[in-house]
Amino acid sequence: MVEKAASRALAQGLLAQFEGAGAQLVEADILQPADLLLDLYGEDIRARAYTTSDPLRGEQMLRPDFTVPVVQMHMDGGAEPARYAYMGEVFRRQDTDAERACEYMQVGYEAFDRDAAAADAEVFGLFSRVLAPYGLAAVTGDIGLVTAAVQSLNTSARRKAALMRHVWRPRRFRQLLERYSGALPVSDARAKLLGSDQPFKNAGPLIGKRSAAQIEARLDVLRQDAATAPIGAGEVELLNALLNLRETCPNALSALRDFAVDFPLLAPAVQQFDARLDALSTAGVGVDDLPFEASFGRTSMEYYDGFVFGFRSTSRPDLPPIATGGRYDALTERLGNGRTIPAVGGVIRPGLLLEVAQ
């Protein structure tokens, strides 16, 4: 109880700083409609959220984050440009780590503005100033660079879509890349199944919701994929080199320009990266030593699609990031009913700040 009270008090102080920066204070319901979150993230969200059923409203989820309801509120009629701030509890299941909190306070700031580079710099600069007393280490990344590199691969649209779907699951992404490049051999059982023209012979009764026709259709898709030429070893090597890129921002920009020669669809994201560095410098952020990690943000919420950032404790490496944020332009389009606006934001966990300050 004492820890909760201290976390809330710190959260109110952080919220006041966000309001002082020009943000409008907003609130979001603790119970959120599950159908919206399931539509955005698929069934995987169930592994991270608490669900309940309401006889009138249907399936509901305890608020897993604030960004989705804030975006929905803004797209339903908010003026632009706009800045919002909020605080409150979020709820995340921790099935594999009993030590991590499943309910904790967040304080956040969201910016809806069509000058994307300037808004990125504004939000990152604000978080840097607010967190300066705590001696945290900043890190930046860009999901847009990763997805552009995947789209540049010389392979089928279906394989690109599968890789894109698992960008936020690095282990599964790596397994798919190994399979599509031929580095992961096809098992004998899989090869036998795909090569059979009578897959249901001696198979016994069907179990589950899929019909025989649906299973046949899925097998046809797998056969088409098996007949697709493997992704070249050179492309895989380049993609892995990009994913492993860890440099200061200026050096990363130079390396990314080289990558864009082989991955032409990377060029717009590299130009945006360059514009962001200029905007950060103009906003007073020292970019010469600002770290960049190409894979940073790939285990965050799946709506980030561009610039991402985080602040970590150097004295407590066992803790998750104290603050995280990023750009989520595609989310505004999904929730905008035909409208879209560039948007970027971030959250701070005051409970973790208290642990760092101890």
From TrEMBL:
Pfam family, any one: tRNA-synt_His
GO biological process: histidyl-tRNA aminoacylation
Recorded superkingdom: Bacteria
A GO MF label: histidine-tRNA ligase activity
Domain named Class II Histidinyl-tRNA synthetase (HisRS)-like catalytic core: residues: 5-168, 226-346
Residues that bind L-histidine: 65-67, 92, 106, 110, 298, 303-304
SUPFAM superfamilies: Class II aaRS and biotin synthetases (SSF55681)
Gene Ontology CC: one annotated term: cytoplasm
Glycosyltransferase among keywords: yes
Key words, A-Z: Glycosyltransferase, Transferase
Keyword Phosphoprotein: no
Protein name in the entry: ATP phosphoribosyltransferase regulatory subunit
Gene designation: hisZ
